[in-house]
Amino acid sequence: MAATGAATYTPVITNDAVIFGILMVMLGVIFYTSKSEHPIFKKFYGLVPMLLLCYFAPSLLTFFRLVDPNETQTYFVASRYLLPASLVLLTVSIDLREIVRLGPKALIMFFTGTVGVVLGGPIAVWLTALVNPELVGGVGPTEVWRGLATVAGSWIGGGANQAAMAVIYEPTDELFSVMVAVDVIVAEAWMLFLLLGVGKAEKIDAFFKADASAIDRLRDKMETFAKKTSRIPTSVDLMMIGAIGFGAVAASHWAADIIAPWFKGVADSLKSPDQKVHFLEAIGLTSGFFWLIVAATTIGVVLSFTRARNYEGAGASKVGTVFIFILVATIGLKMDIRAVVEHPGLFLVGGIWMVFHVALLFLVGWLIRAPYFFLAVGSKANIGGAASAPVVAAAFHPALAPVGVLLAVLGYALGTYAAVLCAGLMRAASPIAGG
């Protein structure tokens, strides 16, 4: 996700080393207390998911103006170095054949999430215009639908798609800044409810009359493999896990640095003078981050067919989990809930939009009897992309993280085109363009 707009305050803490240390202490306290046998902690974590707290606690640093999320590079480092490493370490022991056996419901729920975003935007604009047309009005670059189009790009694909929509529709910097806040906060609010549902997945599956046996089979098979290869890790094991993870990060960055500029050059040479975004840019092929994620995932899958998968027994997925929780904390740092007070109307529009997306997911999930896992990951593969989908999948079990990654990559490919359709519908529904 993109960062919020320029800060209007001077943060107390500006040193990234200090910020990173505070985030690590927060994560350490949360992990330690979540496993505590103390009655207070057991009761607390019985109500509040540990993963949710890993998002919320860092946001307090931004809320109390201790940190400016726009100035710190912690998210950039986590998303560019730790995220690809975690994808490799979480994927290296995966059984690809079992993922294929999960069936088509995962794809159905993913595309349902996409349709929910495409239709939810114009419905939210239309409903809001019935009550307060000025809220979703505007003239020229200040037209609200232009800003909402960037949210659509982010919610279907990711940051690259959001940037493409900003180029196409040219909202003002101020409007774009507000929309990024809507994007982040509304998406993380939905993440809150998704995580609450993880602990109640069996009850939700029972309500849907869903068959989660394929998911359980994959999880159990991975647990059996981990136990079979389990050993007390030596310093050599840990160093090899680091070599596998960050060696793959190096290879992924190297590939991205070659492939993305090549596609960019092709796109520029084929682009007509009046064309703002070429097809290759629209589907994310000119984005270095897109190729970083694709390369890391591919390396992890390839290594899963080699002896490298045996490092799962030495804790490869556990190290990957540590990395992904650091990413979670840096995402939480960017969630400034003060923006809700400053622009409540636009957050209401975003909320209505999200409610439609969620309602459609639950309706289709109930109709096709899809497990809650497919609903949750299908949603976050759209709304959050590679930074969130594997986090949600791993909340069910680390072995399931690659499912989220593969769907997120699909979201990058669809993001801009689906967002353009959504933008057109929002423009027609707005009180200015649509009458």
End-to-end CA span: 33 Å
In one word, what is the shape? globular
Major sheet size, sense and barrel closure: none
User: What share of residues is helical?
Assistant: over 70%
Strand content: under 5%
What is the arithmetic mean of pLDDT? 85
Order of helical and strand elements = HHHHHHHHHHHHHHHHHHHH
Radius of gyration: 21 Å
Q: What is the number of helices?
A: 20
Content-based structural category: mainly alpha
The number of E-state strands comes to 0
Task: Write down the domain tally.
Answer: 1
Low-confidence stretches: 1-6
Your description of this structure?
Helix 3 (about 50-65) packs parallel to helix 15 (about 315-335). The chain is globular and about 65 Å long. It contains 20 helices and no strands. It has helices at about 15-35, 40-45, 50-65, 75-90, 95-100, 105-130, 145-155, 160-170, 175-200, 200-210, 215-230, 235-270, 280, 290-305, 315-335, 340, 345-370, 370-380, 390-395, 400-430. The longest helix is centred in the middle third of the chain and has 36 residues, at about 235-270. It is mainly alpha-helical and about 425 residues long. The protein has one domain.
For this entry, give a set of tags.
435 residues; disordered N terminus; 73% helix; globular; mainly alpha; single chain
Brief summary of the model shown:
This protein is mainly alpha-helical. It is built from 20 helices and no strands.
List the helices and strands and how they pair.
Blueprint: H1 16-34, H2 39-47, H3 50-63, H4 74-91, H5 96-100, H6 105-131, H7 144-156, H8 159-169, H9 173-198, H10 201-208, H11 213-229, H12 235-270, H13 279-282, H14 288-303, H15 316-333, H16 338-342, H17 344-368, H18 372-382, H19 389-396, H20 401-429
